[in-house]
C-alpha cells in the first residue's frame, strides 16, 4: 500500500524531493516519478480500479519501508483527493509550493529551452499585449 504522496505544482521541487527521499533507507519511492494513477480517468471508469499496477511500481527491500510516489497534478485534479482517500484514508500528503515568481521563471525557462516560448521573461507576448489593449 502507498503510504504517502508528493504533490504540488509543476517546477515546484517535487523531482528534487523525490530524489532526496529515495535515498532514505526507511522509504521506498516509486521507480518512476509521476505514476499518474489517481488522475487516470480510464482506471476509474468502472468504479474501484485494480491497484496492482500502482503497487508494481514499488520495489520495497523491507516490509517496514514506507512507500511513496510523486505526481504533482494530484493537487489540482479534482477527483484525486476522493480517490486517494478511498484507497488509503491514512495517506499522508506532502504538498510543495514555491514562490510564484521563481516558479513562473522556472516554468518559462523550461518552455523556452523546449522551443515553445520565444518572448523574454516578464514581457507579454505580442498576442497578450493586443488582448490586454482590447480588454
Can you put this structure into words, describing what you see?
The chain is α/β, with parallel strands linked by helices and 135 residues long. It folds into two domains: 4-98, Rossmann fold (3-Layer(aba) Sandwich), CATH 3.40.50; 100-135. It is 33% helix and 13% strand. The chain contains five helices and four strands, in the order E-H-E-H-E-H-E-H-H. It has helices at residues 14-22, 52-55, 80-87, 100-113, 126-134, and strands at 4-8, 27-29, 66-70, 92-96. It has a four-stranded parallel sheet with strand order 2-3-1-4, with helices on one face. Strand 2, helix 2 (52-55) and strand 3 (66-70) form a beta-alpha-beta unit. The longest helix is centred in the C-terminal third of the chain and has 14 residues, at 100-113. The relative contact order is 0.23.
Amino acid at each position: 500500500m502507498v503510504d504517502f504522496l508528493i504533490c504540488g505544482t509543476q517546477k515546484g521541487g517535487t523531482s528534487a524531493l523525490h530524489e532526496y527521499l529515495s535515498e532514505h533507507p526507511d522509504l521506498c519511492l516509486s521507480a518512476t516519478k509521476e505514476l499518474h494513477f489517481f488522475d487516470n480517468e480510464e482506471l476509474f471508469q468502472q468504479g474501484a480500479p485494480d491497484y496492482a499496477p500502482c503497487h508494481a511500481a514499488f520495489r520495497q527491500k523491507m516490509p517496514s519501508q514506507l512507500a511513496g510516489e510523486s505526481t504533482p497534478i494530484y493537487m489540482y485534479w479534482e477527483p484525486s483527493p476522493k480517490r486517494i482517500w478511498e484507497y488509503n484514508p491514512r495517506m499522508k500528503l506532502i504538498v510543495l509550493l514555491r514562490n510564484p515568481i521563481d516558479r513562473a521563471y522556472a516554468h518559462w525557462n523550461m518552455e523556452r529551452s523546449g522551443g515553445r516560448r520565444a518572448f523574454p521573461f516578464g514581457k507579454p507576448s505580442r498576442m497578450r499585449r493586443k488582448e490586454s489593449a482590447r480588454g
